[in-house]
Specification:
Elements: E1 2-7, H1 12-25, E2 31-36, H2 47-64, E3 70-73, H3 81-87, E4 92-94, H4 95-106, E5 110-114, H5 120-129, E6 136-141, H6 152-169, E7 175-178, H7 186-190, E8 198-200, H8 201-215, H9 238-244
Parallel strand pairs: 1-2, 1-3, 3-4, 5-6, 5-7, 7-8
């Protein structure tokens, strides 16, 4: 099985974290291709940045999906992921939707630990889009400027662990989702020091992608996720044009 990992921001250091956690979580024999956006921002915090990241993810998907059994949009908030399901002929999953699905199988209420205050509005919208707002116990977040998205875990591990504990003790969370590609693998590192299950978006997405690829369900030809209709277009990059022509 081959899975395409798309980092829709420009941080190669974050791509390395994503790929490392994906390999730890994967089944034996699963292979990965990890790609990084050539334009955009260092890490996505806002709805507008997510719009840019979604376009970057679409360009990368159009260029690289062929030869892969599934695609992972490896940014929490899933920028562009629902739209890519219409255009990419293999299963497409995102970190948020996968983490939420995992959390809902582990407990009734979940909290989300994030890397910044500003990111919370966009994440709240994403949870609502998944229909799970009533199961959200709360958000906890770092409130310190980030030196480098690739070093967030090294710089703030103790603070992030404390936020997970606060989510349990003060929010009443049954499960804590550690959100964001820069935090890939942190749940594995601190899971024995927090008294409820910790969920990682990357490892959840890898397992979901493997499952969907193995199920070999057909591509929809009708309904809300049918491929976009063929119509005239102009000025689009070649990878986007390929997706609009059916992949």
């Amino acid at each position: 099985m081959k899975i395409l990992l798309i980092n829709p921001n420009i941080s190669e250091s974050v791509t390395a974290l994503i790929e490392a956690e994906a390999r730890r979580a994967a089944s034996p024999g699963t292979e990965f291709t990890a790609v990084t956006a050539s334009f955009g921002v260092a890490y996505i915090e806002t709805r507008f940045e997510a719009l840019v990241g979604g376009y970057a993810a679409a360009c990368l998907a159009g260029e690289h999906w062929s030869g892969h059994d599934a695609v992972i949009v490896a940014a929490f908030g899933d920028p562009g992921m629902p739209a890519l399901r219409e255009a990419v002929p293999v299963p497409v999953v995102g970190l948020t939707e996968s983490a939420l699905a995992t959390a809902c199988l582990l407990g009734a209420r979940f909290s989300i630990v994030a890397i910044s205050r500003r990111i919370v509005g966009w994440y709240r919208d994403t949870v609502a889009a998944c229909g799970l707002s009533d199961r959200l116990a709360g958000f906890r977040f770092l409130d310190t400027p980030l030196r480098d998205p690739g070093s967030v875990q090294a710089d703030h591990e103790a603070a992030l662990e404390a936020l997970c504990r606060q989510a349990v003790e003060e929010d009443g969370a049954d499960v804590v989702i550690i959100a964001g590609a820069p935090l890939a693998g942190l749940a594995r590192s601190i899971r024995d020091r927090v008294p409820v299950p910790l969920v990682d978006g990357v490892s959840s997405a890898v397992r979901q992608a493997e499952t969907l690829a193995a199920l070999r369900t057909r591509r929809p030809a009708a309904g809300g996720y049918a491929p976009p209709p063929i119509k005239p277009n102009q000025g689009l990059p070649a990878p986007i044009e390929r997706l609009l022509r059916g992949g």
